[in-house]
Amino acid sequence: MTSLSRSQWGKGPWEYETDRYEFVFKSTKTGEQFPCVIERDEQTGTLVGNIRVDSSPSIPYWLTQEEINKLKVHGGIKYLGPARKPNDVNLACWLKFSTDNLGDYKPAHPVHIGHEEYRIFSFVENQLDDLVDQIVQIKLKHFVKGIDPCRETPGQSCESLSLRQDRMDIDFKRLDQRIEAIEKTLSGFRSAICENDME
Question: pTM surpassing 0.85?
Answer without folding.
Answer: no
